[in-house]
Amino acid sequence: MMTTSVSNLPTTMRAWAVTEPGPIDGEKSPLEFTTKPVPTPQRGEVLVRVLTCGVCHTDLHVSEGDLPVHQDHVTPGHEIVGEVVAIGPDAHRFELGDRIGVPWLRWTCGVCQYCRSGRENLCPNSKYTGWDHDGGYAEYTTVPEGFAYRIPERFDSQTASPLLCAGIIGYRAFQRANVPTGGRLGLYGFGGSAHITAQLAIDQGIEVHVLTRGKDARKFALSLGAKSAAGAYDLPPVKLDSSIIFAPVGDIVPTALEGLAPGGTLALAGIHLTDIPPLNYQNHIFHEKNLTSVESNTRHDGEEFLKLADRLDIHPETTPYAFDKADEALRYVKKGDIRGACVLKIGED
Fold first, then answer.
1. Would the CATH topology of 4-151+317-345 be identical to that of 168-293?
2. Mind telling me which Gene3D superfamilies this protein's record contains (predicted)?
3. What is the chain's percent helix, strand, coil content, to nearest 5?
4. For residues 335 and 265, what is the distance between their CA atoms, to the nearest angstrom?
5. Which of the listed CATH numbers 3.40.640.10, 3.40.50.150, 3.40.50.720, 3.30.1240.10 matches domain 168-293?
6. Spatial distance between the Cα atoms of 56 and 53, rounded to a whole number of angstroms
7. Could you report how far apart the first and last alpha carbons of the chain are, in Å?
8. Contact status, residue 121 vs residue 298, Cβ threshold 8 Å
9. Distant-in-sequence, close-in-space partners of 111: CB < 8 Å, separation ≥ 6
């Protein structure tokens, strides 16, 4: 198989690997900073030199074992911005030097009933970056070209990284929450995804109310234009048309449902959630309230969101971390009281 590449590609690279899933703030970190071979792009794939990689809560779930192991010693990371440095056989979409984004959704089968009906996010055979395949906490990674995104020129690499999961998943959750025009939206948890979703909603005339445990996060929410900010278990000051739970905490669900107006929708945005306690039909579900989950996204969601983010000039607030401080960044994400999103600086633009 013929591969086109830039000259002088290395054969090994620095990368993080999940050696034994466990608490990121425990005595022994589940992550190890190590050396791995530079991967070779297979048919239909490109090799990317990683410039930046966002630090997502899902990376924490992979590292701590909340999600089952899909690949031993996997390299986490799926909010990747990088430069195409090699092109595998039958890959024609990108050219060497192109700056592209590598997201969470790595591959779907294309033939199941979900793929054929425009719901590839529900594909039972789907594969994910940083879980089924090595991701972006590394100097190089590969991606099937059909699942990568072109990055709008407006965004530098550090700013673009959180858009590739926090932004896209927030957009999917926003859609699933059935937010009415000019309506009221509640956001539970206020990290990377929620603060992008807040900007998206406010820019479209939605009244946003934030409920989160972190005092600094509440101040941040108000600075972005939220109408109110309170604790995660508080009731909002007004009944809400829609709410999204970004925090992976099932205990919040009853309170969030109670805070909805009749006919309102609560969307659960995470891939992992602790157990939901018993619900009271009259208090939590009656009056035609809706409870739904969010599973990944389609490529169409991603393309649509990136165009919208470009048009509305959505800019994530980012905190940069050195490549060798990925475990430190994950500990900060776990703390919960964060301002925006953390991004690893890996390569030079």
1. no
2. Medium-chain alcohol dehydrogenases, catalytic domain, NAD(P)-binding Rossmann-like Domain
3. 30, 30, 45
4. 28
5. 3.40.50.720
6. 9
7. 29
8. yes
9. none
56 phi and psi angles, rounded to 5 deg:
-105, 155
Query: Which residue type does 316 have?
Result: P
pTM exceeds 0.90: yes
CATH top class, domain 4-151+317-345: alpha beta
Task: Yes or no: say if 21 and 130 are a contact pair by the CB < 8 Å rule.
Answer: no
Distance, in Å, from the CA atom of 161 to the CA atom of 155, rounded to the nearest integer, reads 9
Using CA atoms of 242, 263, 281, 247 in order, give the dihedral in degrees to the nearest 10. Answer: -10
Residue 279's φ and ψ, nearest 5 degrees, are: -105, 150
- The CA distance from 55 to 150, in Å, is 20
Tokens found for residue 105:
């959704």
- Residue 265 CA to residue 78 CA, distance in Å, equals 28
Domain boundaries, the chain: 4-151+317-345, 168-293
**Sign of torsion, CA 309 314 317 322?**
positive
pLDDT tens digits in sequence order for the chain, 349 residues long: 667 888 889 999 999 999 999 999 999 999 999 999 999 999 999 999 999 999 999 999 999 999 999 999 999 999 999 999 999 999 999 999 999 999 999 999 999 999 999 999 999 999 999 999 999 999 999 999 999 999 999 999 999 999 999 999 999 999 999 999 999 999 999 999 999 999 999 999 999 999 999 999 999 999 999 999 999 999 999 999 999 999 999 999 999 999 999 999 999 999 999 999 999 999 999 999 999 999 999 999 999 999 999 999 999 999 999 999 999 999 999 988 778 899 999 999 8
Question: Taking the CB of residue 1, how many other CB atoms lie within 10 A of it?
Answer: 9
